[in-house]
Amino acid sequence: MSDARSRPVPGQVPVLRLGDVLLVTLQGDLYDSTAQQLQQDLAETISRTGVRGVLIDISGVEIVDSFLGRVLAEIAAQAKLLAARTVVAGMRPAVAITLVELGLTLPGLSTALSTEAGMQLLSQHPPATGAGGPRQESP
């Protein structure tokens, strides 16, 4: 998908690979087509590269609705099946309140206050084993 030198395509969410973690930074609204493309890109990149974690920075998101909550939960579920862990970082207090009021629990997601804390969290804990068992490197 992307590495630190890649430039995002307009209408796409940039995904950067930092070691064994994919960093996704959400800014503003996430539309249906963009969300579907992001989910597909992340699943393909996790599968192809064998990264251990996905860090989603939502500090640039003003409002999280049920759609975005569902997208985050689906990304986490897909990543877990591919033996990667998902952390959401930078959640604003108003966003957390909204998620609770909507009754969204976001299963499979860990949270961190900042991107740095999220990277540290991903580096401290081994990834969850996906449905296929432990990941094996190809020769």
Automatic annotation (TrEMBL):
InterPro entries: Bact_StressResp_Reg (IPR051932), STAS_dom (IPR002645), STAS_dom_sf (IPR036513)
PROSITE patterns, per database record: STAS
Pfam families: STAS
Source domain of life: Bacteria
Residues annotated as domain STAS: 11-122
SUPFAM superfamilies, per the entry: SpoIIaa-like (SSF52091)
Name by which UniProt lists this protein: STAS domain-containing protein
Lineage: Bacteria, Bacillati, Actinomycetota, Actinomycetes, Kitasatosporales
